[in-house]
Amino acid sequence: MANSTERVDGQELWTAVDRYFTDLLSPPDAALDAALKASVAAGLPEIQVSANQGKLLHLLARLQGARSILEIGTLGGYSTIWLGRALPKDGRLVTLEAEPKHAEVARASIARAGLGGIVEVRLGRALDTLPQLAAEKPGPFDLVFIDADKPSIPEYFAWALKLSRKGSLIIVDNVVREGAVIDAGSEDASVHGVRKLHEMLAAEPRVSATAIQTVGTKGYDGFTIALVT
């Protein structure tokens, strides 16, 4: 163990540890690597989940035995591919994306990964497309992953609950905000969004939830997971 004078910077260490686990447990994958490269080439923000986080989503979906998944926030399709690969051949994943450019990049990457028959990318603001989706009566989703604009998270969660069933999992990313989540006086709309979400969870008798802090290549953040009971 390094002594205090030899310790590396926290972020450098977190990234190195993430790389260690990724190299061992999530080795290079052509479709996933291509999705990342396509996102970079298109100038999309590099805010997708890390490889380890994507693998966690994949494993949770498999443990859930998910046959239908809803993703709110597609970006370049990286997390979509991880989730889509957890589904059976007759499964369904609906992912919602507000930005046309993001949706275009995601569709190409999803098709390249061989998931075009399972995944549907819907373009439009999620607060517009969610009511449309609900009106179609798609049946409950087994898992919902929320990774979109944080000020709207409370509304996304409310829709996720409407579109779920007893036993569904709802996962929300980026809820720690480098610790800012505890700042009741914050003027950051994203912080307000995640704080309101957790106040809703605390008062909602239909779910049992917890939140986990994380460190890694994405810095200091965390996620919330809720079981619909």
UniProtKB/TrEMBL annotation:
Coiled-coil spans in chain: none
Q: Which InterPro entries match?
A: Cation-dep_OMT, SAM-dependent_MTases_sf, SAM_O-MeTrfase
Give the PROSITE patterns listed for this entry: SAM_OMT_I (PS51682)
Does this entry carry the keyword Nucleotide-binding? no
What are the GO MF terms of this UniProt record? Answer: O-methyltransferase activity; S-adenosylmethionine-dependent methyltransferase activity
Q: Which domain of life is it from?
A: Bacteria
Question: What is any one GO biological process for this UniProt entry?
Answer: methylation
The protein's name in its UniProt record: O-methyltransferase
What is the native source organism of this protein?
Answer: Eiseniibacteriota bacterium
